[in-house]
Amino acid sequence: MTKNDIINQQILRELTANGRISNLELAERIGLSPSACLRRVQELERQGVIRGYRAVLDPQAMGVGFVTYIGVGLNEHSKAAQEAFERAMQIAPEVVECHNITGTIEYLMRVECADLPSYKRFHTDVLGTAPHVNAITSYVVMGSPKDQRS
Length: 150
Description:
Shape: elongated
Distance between the termini: 28 Å
CATH superfamily of the largest domain: Lrp/AsnC effector binding domain/regulation of amino acid metabolism (RAM) domain
Structural class: alpha+beta
Oligomer: single chain
């Protein structure tokens, strides 16, 4: 297990803000030599603390103008029902997050579509035909005052 000291926390904070920062600039910001900084980053990667680097996309530029969170309840509480539903959501490109949760429903999903008509198609053609679905509750995102993914 990697030590979670202040230096590693600073490295992770900087990399979260800008995953493309050079090792030299990262080392300067943290106050380490470039070699010591690189060793720490490599260790964080090796141990799985840093799982990868990715591009942050602009939803508007990608044609996404409608975001909703959806609660989904299943009519059967079995492993087979969950696996069937998860397979159906895995191939739906509109579903960007799907979480199996506790509580009164089985799943909470983040769905991104171009607009309301495309969401309606997803709701009818994908969720409406997904196996074992018996309850769908949509929560339309009207704004995101805090979103650390962007």
